[in-house]
């Protein structure tokens, strides 16, 4: 338990820099630049030429060790064992430099023909796989499995930084010893063979922890780069990392559920895992990552396979001196066009390879010529469609929205002029050439002429909402900088203009949404573009008016509830289809200030089908929520956005696409996926099935191509390429599972089953699938374990918890849930990327009352030192504690009723020394001169930087005082909640189902809740074993097998 008197003392001994509490100014490492959270610096943007240079900063491991030690110091459980001291880093002064050297050589060998001297240290390879031939040209060689088993000497491979067991960071949540053979985790040591055997129960301390599974890799990837061709599972999606594209796309863009793919459908079925790919094609880059190159092949367009139309990529091979190239997808031998011809060197590598990003990088953008156009591309047009009805005005939503638009366009209402000339400020704003328009609506529509020639905006009222037209030829869409004065003036006036208290006789409380949307879509039909629409009440006026469908009487799980989760409104459906056709999409900002029903099922359908997003404020409160509103409008306008988009995924012969999951339009099965708009936060899932058998001698290839127009008006194709090995057995594939990809694919698939299936059936299906996967592992891979053990594969260690969270999430949970919230979350799950989903399914929780002095500040390398995160269970909540709980959607500051007055004053300022004194509508922390305040704001800044599309604003949840406490309880996913099980009970339940499956007694329906009492006598133990099947040069087969066992 923390000593609060001591805590306060800590607050007093602040660093001198604290007078200026802006974190940036506090950095002792000023030279490290503008961002204290900067990741390690990847090699320079010239890419492959640079691969020979050390890929990571030359941090002496001594300093890394210091950090490891510091990390250990944060552990709440005391004394770090010797093993923990070694932690994730080899002993100081070890063979690190040698590793680095070897890593370089190793990489150069992989990439082939890079002009690097890789002689001498290249390991021998088994010649089993045909793609060795390709390897010499810089391809998939490491996917042989060699890297994994031989990784001991590879400086580039992350595992040996962790342990000698070639454990990827994702797999290894324990700081393990360097001894590769048998290394019980510190956990195991702490707990011995069994946990509290006296009680005969599972010790919740010992079950796999998502919190721990994130912290260790997060610390590791602060100082290390993830090279994408290594034969390892990617880092956890929820943590920041710098990826270095070596020909395989970064996991930020694309993650396969497994990087070794079973050769047949039967082998895949035996392990129960889905074969799928998550794609977030415009995912944002992190500082330190190389920009995506934009390649222009002029009128002939990018080189492609003549048969399957795959785009040129690093895995196509050149023959006949460069005259032919063989497609890696369909193996068709193409003639190289004269424009694209370059001779090959004696090893078969094109001489110009190093100068050609499309031959060296997994992700590139191709500029495409006219034949890819449907019309001449122009910079994106934005139309703000603003609800000015009474509710919107009176509840402060209109005011907040106008402020948000100004913030998005100009940086804010007040900091006006000085930013005009600031050229750097243009970054993150609307790209040059983009135009904006403003239309407001209530029962009528009001168009605004924003021409810069005018003194002020001219309003044109369109009262005819039955057959609306756009009454403006010019001045509707304008350059936001040329018309800045007119626009800011208008946005400042709008809240008054439509205030019924000021403008007598103006009472139009009902919004006519559909006619307004149709007019907006019509105005954009010629060019394509994006609508940003606000709405603060159920649109009950005019054509397409909606009704209070959800009167809270529909029984959960009933057909009536199902109907509420979808729309049968033909006009909204038709509008969505039309918008996609014309390259238009819509983001909605929906507020229900009085907590009322909005029919998001119908309204949100428009954004779901057109590739947009819904930002929903269920109990909008001004001014608390205006901060978030403003930030989210700014984000939606400034994030990377493309429009008129079409996506296609190609894969190797033997596989075929069996389905797409996400928010998009697909006209027929097998057709390309269409988006009116697409942005950096949107992801889809792609499922594959077999139409034959894969050749284990070959690799499996995947390529996604997104044809889109950039916001700056360029028609491009963004290509992502992935390669995977083909595994002869399912068991081998199981070693290379990407947990985040599996979770994402399963969540998206589950969300797409609704509303056709009932909520209960979908929850059952999630449970079934979880059992299938764990039983599959048991059957294939760990039959040597006694049958009484629950065995969990190391790479899927937290998978069960994520699935439990999915069942408990708002999207899928049992019991009553307002259908607006339910359908909103369902659609979000369908479009979220793996990072946002991971946070949604398991929040990050940090305790503030016992922070180490160094937490929340930069370490010696200029990277933010984060405290360890806590498990999402009330059992971990300490009396008198203060916690930040962030799930990427909301961020709660939960305060225990006995929290120290000193802590409160340090956090909120003098005089705020009791829970009652704190403003419950606070949305950010004040800037104070205390150590704790600075630490907390820095941690919040980190959380804001590492999340998906939603903005961060703080919501206070004081124990016993605030309604937000319920949300806090809901986010404690490990606890029993409503009808859903606790984590421990869930594992016991899964264990029983697996046993029944293995003994052939499982009934598929048997997913009824299990009571822990039926499993009295369960004892539990964690151990890991290591399997070494390889020796000498014939490596590549045996891989360290990690698993966690529970003795049942
Ligand atoms: Zn082809």
UniProtKB/TrEMBL annotation:
Superkingdom in the source lineage: Eukaryota
Family matches, as InterPro entries: ADF-H/Gelsolin-like_dom_sf, Beta-sandwich_Sec23_24, Gelsolin-like_dom, Gelsolin-like_dom_sf, Sec23/24_helical_dom, Sec23/24_helical_dom_sf, Sec23/24_trunk_dom, SEC23_SEC24_subfamily
Q: Which residues form the Sec23/Sec24 beta-sandwich domain?
A: 642-726
Q: Give the compositionally biased regions (Basic residues).
A: 122-131
Q: Which GO terms describe its biological process?
A: COPII-coated vesicle cargo loading; intracellular protein transport
Looking at the record, the residues that make up the Gelsolin-like domain are 866-939
Taxonomy of origin reads: Eukaryota, Fungi, Dikarya, Ascomycota, Pezizomycotina
Q: Which PANTHER family match?
A: SEC24-RELATED PROTEIN (PTHR13803), SECRETORY 24CD, ISOFORM C (PTHR13803:SF4)
Major site of localization recorded for this protein:
membrane
Q: Where is the Zinc finger Sec23/Sec24-type domain?
A: 302-340
Q: How does it sit in the membrane?
A: Peripheral membrane protein
Q: Which residue intervals define the domain Sec23/Sec24 trunk in the entry?
A: 377-636
Q: Biased-composition ranges for Polar residues?
A: 60-76, 98-109, 136-197
The UniProt family comment states:
Belongs to the SEC23/SEC24 family. SEC24 subfamily.
Residues forming the Sec23/Sec24 helical domain are 738-837
Q: Region Disordered: list its residue ranges.
A: 1-202
Which species does the entry assign this protein to?
A: Tothia fuscella
This entry's Gene Ontology molecular function terms read: SNARE binding; zinc ion binding
Q: Where is the composition biased (Low complexity)?
A: 13-36
Q: Where is this protein localized, as stated in its record? A: Cytoplasmic vesicle, COPII-coated vesicle membrane; Endoplasmic reticulum membrane; Golgi apparatus membrane
Q: What is this protein called?
A: Sec23/Sec24 family protein
Keywords associated with the record? Cytoplasmic vesicle, ER-Golgi transport, Protein transport, Transport
Q: Which GO terms describe its cellular component?
A: COPII vesicle coat; endoplasmic reticulum exit site; endoplasmic reticulum membrane; Golgi membrane
The role this protein plays is: Component of the coat protein complex II (COPII) which promotes the formation of transport vesicles from the endoplasmic reticulum (ER). The coat has two main functions, the physical deformation of the endoplasmic reticulum membrane into vesicles and the selection of cargo molecules.
């Amino acid at each position: 338990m923390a000593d609060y008197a001591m805590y306060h003392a800590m607050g007093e001994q602040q660093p001198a820099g604290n007078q200026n509490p802006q974190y940036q100014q506090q950095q002792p490492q000023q030279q490290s630049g503008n961002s204290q959270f900067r990741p390690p610096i990847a090699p320079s943007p010239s890419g492959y030429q640079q691969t020979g240079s050390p890929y990571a900063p030359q941090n002496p491991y001594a300093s890394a060790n210091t950090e490891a030690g510091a990390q250990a110091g944060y552990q709440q459980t005391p004394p770090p064992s010797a093993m923990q001291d070694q932690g994730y880093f080899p002993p100081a002064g070890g063979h690190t430099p040698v590793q680095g050297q070897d890593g370089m050589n190793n990489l150069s060998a992989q990439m082939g023909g890079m002009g690097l001297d890789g002689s001498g240290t290249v390991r021998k390879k088994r010649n089993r796989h045909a793609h060795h031939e390709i390897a010499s040209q810089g391809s998939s060689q490491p996917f042989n499995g060699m890297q994994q088993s031989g990784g001991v000497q590879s400086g580039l491979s992350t595992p040996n930084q962790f342990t000698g067991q070639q454990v990827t960071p994702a797999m290894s949540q324990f700081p393990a010893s360097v001894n590769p053979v048998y290394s019980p985790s510190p956990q195991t040591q702490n707990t011995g063979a069994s946990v509290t055997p006296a009680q005969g129960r599972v010790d919740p301390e010992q079950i796999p922890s998502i919190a721990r599974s994130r912290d260790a890799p997060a610390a590791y990837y602060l100082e290390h780069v993830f090279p994408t061709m290594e034969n390892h599972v990617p880092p956890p999606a929820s943590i920041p990392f710098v990826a270095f594209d070596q020909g395989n796309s970064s996991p930020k863009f694309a993650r396969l559920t497994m990087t070794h793919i079973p050769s047949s459908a039967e082998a895949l079925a035996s392990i129960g895992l889905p074969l799928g790919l998550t794609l977030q094609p415009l995912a944002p880059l992190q500082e330190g990552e190389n920009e995506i190159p934009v390649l222009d092949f002029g009128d002939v367009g990018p080189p492609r396979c003549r048969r399957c139309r795959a785009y040129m990529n690093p895995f196509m091979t050149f023959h006949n001196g460069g005259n032919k190239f063989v497609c890696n997808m369909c193996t068709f031998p193409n003639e190289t066009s004269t424009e694209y011809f370059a001779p090959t060197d004696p090893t078969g590598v094109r001489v110009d390879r190093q100068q050609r990003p499309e031959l060296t990088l997994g992700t590139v953008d191709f500029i495409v010529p006219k034949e890819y156009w449907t019309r001449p591309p122009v910079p994106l047009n934005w139309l703000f469609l603003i609800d000015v009805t009474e509710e919107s005005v009176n509840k402060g939503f209109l005011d907040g929205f106008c402020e948000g638009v100004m913030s998005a366009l100009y940086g804010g209402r007040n900091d006006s002029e000085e930013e005009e000339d600031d050229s750097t400020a243009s970054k993150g704003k609307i790209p040059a050439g983009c135009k904006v328009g403003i239309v407001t609506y209530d029962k009528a529509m009001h168009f605004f002429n924003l021409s810069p020639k005018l003194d002020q905006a001219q309003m044109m009222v369109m009262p005819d909402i039955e057959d609306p037209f756009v009454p403006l030829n010019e001045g509707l869409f304008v350059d936001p900088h040329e018309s800045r004065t007119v626009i800011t003036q208008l946005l400042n006036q709008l809240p008054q203009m439509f205030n019924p208290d000021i403008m007598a006789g103006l009472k139009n409380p009902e919004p006519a949404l559909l006619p307004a949307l149709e007019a907006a879509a019509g105005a954009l039909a010629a060019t394509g573009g994006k609508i940003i629409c606000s709405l603060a009440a159920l649109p009950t006026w005019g054509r397409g008016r909606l009704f209070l469908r959800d009167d809270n009487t529909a029984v959960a799980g009933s057909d009536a509830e199902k109907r509420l989760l979808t729309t049968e409104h033909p006009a909204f459906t038709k509008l969505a289809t039309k918008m996609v056709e014309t390259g238009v999409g819509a983001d909605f900002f929906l507020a229900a200030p009085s907590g009322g029903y909005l029919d998001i099922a119908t309204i949100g359908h428009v954004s779901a089908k057109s590739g947009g997003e819904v930002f929903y404020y269920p109990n909008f409160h001004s001014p608390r929520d205006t901060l978030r509103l403003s930030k989210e409008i700014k984000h939606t306008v400034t994030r990377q956005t493309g429009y008129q988009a079409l996506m296609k995924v190609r894969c190797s012969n033997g596989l075929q696409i069996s389905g797409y999951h996400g928010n998009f339009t697909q006209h027929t099965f097998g057709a390309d996926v269409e988006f009116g708009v697409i942005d950096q936060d949107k992801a889809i899932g792609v499922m594959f099935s077999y139409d034959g058998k894969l050749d284990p001698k070959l690799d499996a290839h995947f390529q996604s191509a997104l044809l889109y127009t950039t916001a700056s008006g360029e028609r491009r194709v963004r290509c992502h390429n992935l390669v995977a090995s083909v595994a002869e057995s399912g068991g081998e594939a199981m070693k290379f599972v990407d947990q985040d990809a599996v979770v994402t694919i399963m969540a998206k698939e589950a969300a797409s089953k609704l509303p056709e299936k009932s909520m209960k059936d979908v929850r059952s299906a999630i449970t079934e699938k979880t059992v299938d996967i764990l039983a599959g592992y048991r059957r294939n891979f760990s039959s040597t374990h006694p049958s009484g053990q629950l065995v969990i594969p190391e790479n899927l260690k937290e998978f069960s918890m994520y699935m439990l969270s999915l069942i408990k999430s708002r999207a899928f949970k049992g019991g009553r849930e307002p259908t607006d919230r339910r359908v909103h979350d369902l659609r979000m799950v369908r479009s979220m990327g793996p990072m946002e989903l991971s946070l949604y399914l398991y929040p990050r929780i940090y305790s503030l009352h016992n922070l180490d002095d160094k937490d929340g500040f930069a370490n010696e390398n200029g990277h933010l030192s984060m405290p360890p995160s806590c498990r999402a269970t009330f059992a971990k909540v300490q009396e008198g504690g203060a916690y930040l709980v962030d799930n990427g959607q909301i961020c709660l500051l939960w305060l225990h009723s006995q929290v120290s007055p000193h802590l409160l004053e340090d956090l909120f300022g003098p005089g705020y020394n009791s829970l009652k004194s704190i403003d419950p509508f606070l949305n950010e922390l004040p800037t104070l001169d205390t150590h704790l305040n600075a630490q907390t704001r820095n941690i919040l800044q980190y959380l804001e930087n590492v999340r998906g599309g939603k903005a961060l604003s703080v919501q206070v949840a004081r124990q016993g005082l605030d309604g937000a406490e319920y949300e806090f309880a809901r986010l404690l996913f490990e606890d029993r909640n409503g009808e859903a099980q606790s984590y421990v009970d869930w594992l016991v339940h899964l264990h029983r189902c697996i046993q029944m499956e293995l003994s052939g007694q499982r009934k598929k329906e048997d997913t009824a809740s299990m009571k822990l009492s039926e499993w009295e006598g369960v004892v539990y133990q964690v151990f890991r074993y290591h399997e070494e099947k390889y020796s000498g040069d014939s490596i590549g087969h045996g891989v360290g097998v990690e698993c966690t066992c529970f003795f049942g």
